[in-house]
Amino acid sequence: MTASAVTPESVLDAPAEPKDILSSSDKADFDLIAAVRELGLPDEISARVELLIEAQKKRQRESAQRLQTILDSVVEGILIVDGVGRVQDCNKSACVLLRAQHDDLVDSGAEEMFIDRKNTVRHKLLNRCINISSGILRYDYTETMGQRRDGDSFPMEIIVSPAHFMGENSFLYIFRDITRRKQAEESQKKLEGELREALKLEAIGHLAGGIAHEINTPSQYIRDNLKFLNDGYGSLSRLLGSALNTLWKHRDSLPEGTFREFSKQMRDADLEFLLDEIPHATQQSLDGINQVARIVLSMKEFSHPGSSEKTATDINRILSNVIVISRNEWKHSAELTEELDPELPHIPCFVNEINQVFLNLIVNAAQAIEMSGRSVEEGHIHIKTTAIDDQILVSISDNGTGIAKENRSKIFNPFFTTKEVGKGTGQGLSITHDIVQVKHGGRIWFETQMGKGTTFHVLLPGDDRSGTKAPPADKK
């Protein structure tokens, strides 16, 4: 068949030789248009074929560009890794996540993205990915620690999936940085832990009233019985003294040896010691049981369910209860003194929240003294209340470490703490600030000096100012 007799249909149905040549894998870069021209086809058919080839090339370029755009837009890093663990290609996100250039990643070992240099993570993934017994290829997933090229590490989620490129078995490594997720999970765990503690304390609070009643009942009759014994001892002591005096006066008229035997029994019983010490013992017992009663009463008032409305509150009584409740927190660190103004007016407060404010401040003061290394005799906490017009100023001072300059602006920030891990959540002063300024419309600020201590001032208004914008706290 001559070239002039060739029709378009016959070109499409042409023998397979040219098509085999054009589709041969080792001739991938062959110039198709030049090949068509060499066939000597009519100009019209040649032009049509060239247009078809150009259109196909354009579609391929557009498809490749679209695919590359999609890959570069994906937030996950993608590596194409061959069977021996060498990176063949990667997307833009992989370069960003691993902090490397494209050329640095290509032909490098895939194991460099793992902190585990023994490749155990990668090998486990591959072993699970290729089921040797069944020959089935499947993807697998894990979380591990990734290694950036600048030496930084990050928590990484990675999926390894089998893939075929150019007739060879390869693997897709699809990974992402999960630092934020891990931080969120840690924050969630922390909040859940704090919630559990809060629920536990709430349960204890509900039980405290009943426990206080149960303790108070036996305490009451123990106290009454001790008082009875103490009062009765005085009468018996006077009666015994009178009897001894009578015996002494009439000793000569008694049967022989009677007074001597009685005197011996007195010495054996150590009567003089008993007469001196029994009143001390009963008085100490009375003091102890009175202290128990004060603690029980303070616990009962401290744990009383709070009202949803503000109630007229005696701040001095609140402080006295908190001092009793928190005694175990400060008695090993400092001496505590009170200077409470007896003329304080009652002011509207949420009692439970104000309890928490003063408890936080007293415990913080004790911990600051403990951190300073002062002995119990050297440590000192001073609590003072003052009436200022219709407002109440409460000042809680310590001679602890003081607050460093770089921390003073952050002291009321949520989760900020200078305490050791496990000793502070960074929530105490943040909550205190919110209770004072937002819920009560008051002010809280501090004065501090490094090495000498800190004084926190709480100014509470005499009227209800909640819901009004509070002035900013001073931080001197």
Automatic annotation (TrEMBL):
Superkingdom per UniProt: Bacteria
PAC domain location: 140-190
MF term (GO), any: protein histidine kinase activity
Biological-process GO terms, alphabetical: phosphorelay signal transduction system; regulation of DNA-templated transcription
Region (Disordered): 1-20
Enzyme Commission designation: 2.7.13.3
Classification via InterPro entries: HATPase_C_sf, HATPase_dom, His_kinase_dom, PAS, PAS-assoc_C, PAS-like_dom_sf, PAS_fold, Sig_transdc_His_kin-like_C
Protein keywords: ATP-binding, Kinase, Nucleotide-binding, Phosphoprotein, Transferase, Two-component regulatory system
Span of domain Histidine kinase: 210-464
Swiss-Prot/TrEMBL catalytic activity: ATP + protein L-histidine = ADP + protein N-phospho-L-histidine
Principal EC category: transferase
Matching NCBIfam families: sensory_box
Protein name as catalogued: histidine kinase
